[in-house]
Design goal:
This protein has helices spanning 5-9, 37-49, 73-82, 93-96, 100-113, 127-136, 140-151, 156-164, 166-172, 177-190, 216-224, 247-256, 259-262, 272-282, 286-293, 300-312, 316-319, 350-355, 359-379; strands at residues 18-19, 22-23, 25-30, 53-59, 62-63, 67-68, 87-91, 118-123, 193-198, 209-210, 213-214, 326-331, 346-347, 391-392. By secondary structure, it is an alpha/beta fold. The protein has two domains: 5-224, 3-Layer(aba) Sandwich (Rossmann fold); 243-318, no CATH class. The longest helix is centred in the last third of the chain and has 21 residues, at 359-379.
Amino acid sequence: MIVHFKRFFKRFSTVSKKVGAILSRAGVICEFNPFHNGHKFLLEKIKQEYADEIVCIMSGSFVQRGDIAIADKYLRTTAALRYGADVVIELPTPYALSSARIFADNGVRIAAQMNCDILCFGAENSLEELIEVAEQLEKESVNNTIRSEMQSGQYYPKALSTALGAEHAEIVNQPNNILALEYIKACRKYGIRPVAIPRKGVGHNEDAIRDGVASASKIRELIQNGEPYQLLTPMEITHMSRIKSIEPAVLYRLKTIAADELAKIADVSEGLENRIINAAKQYNSLEEIYKAVKTKRYTMARIRRIVINAFLGVTSELQNTPVPYLRVLGIGSGMEGLFQSVKLPLVIKTRADCEKLDSTAKEIFEIELRAAEAMNLAGGQIINEFTKGIIKL
């Protein structure tokens, strides 16, 4: 059955900042790795044109590309609150380390729980163009072609381009747009209006600096190389994290994990566990293992995510469980009312609230604790998840 996205979204009124005295609320799914001037522009534009309140749903210690965040989540939360966010909710690690579909679905689920009217995201194309592609992706013929291409050994982005044809291939080849398409599909599912905002200044992974704006990847490169970065981000990163700092621990896990256990890890399929174990026996660095495991069918980001999920114990079963709680990382002054109608359990007072979670939610939270300890090792600092408390500005 074809989902008529245009018809569904047409029922929403034109996006505006206020309708009478009713406050509007925007969700933003983000990583802020690090928070930079482009993110400041995005939050400012949302506040000026679309919403009175902004809920940021942010990855914690690890990010979707299968890497550790360059700075701890509390530092990134503080920057977001200072420059426009009203509350920051953590996107739990099992979903942060997932495919675009799972990442988007759980992020939008949190936005819906927080009663967001709209979801704002950066994109290289207009919302109308993206919705047109989203409708194509609901056609059985397109999905049959995607499956056929992947069975022949193609990785998902390439299979997607082939199935959609030349007319739409350019859209899905843009780095932000695959996530944007998943946001649009999730917005329809949860009854939220999507708002695509053009990126300012530079592309997603562009190696350039324009008008004080650079991509997060460019800024990470500058920080890691010890080059000046301060004019590009309001964050001062004194404890930089990098995966190399925890590489021995990750390698130990890969070299000792059993094949049947690895087979249960999120996104492992088709005997990939054996390929990873064989590479771990042969090589002594993560980069060597990544290159040995990668084929044209598996993207490097997917391989990295699998390795970190194995390290942290993220199983397919847990990753496919809808996010079961909302953990508040930070909140602006006077914004406590944002939580009045939330139906999922809230984790605010960490020790007390996590004890009230059901068994599955506790498993997911325990992964969060392991991820936070990995961040402590990688960043050379000690942040206690139970005593830190939420950031209040």
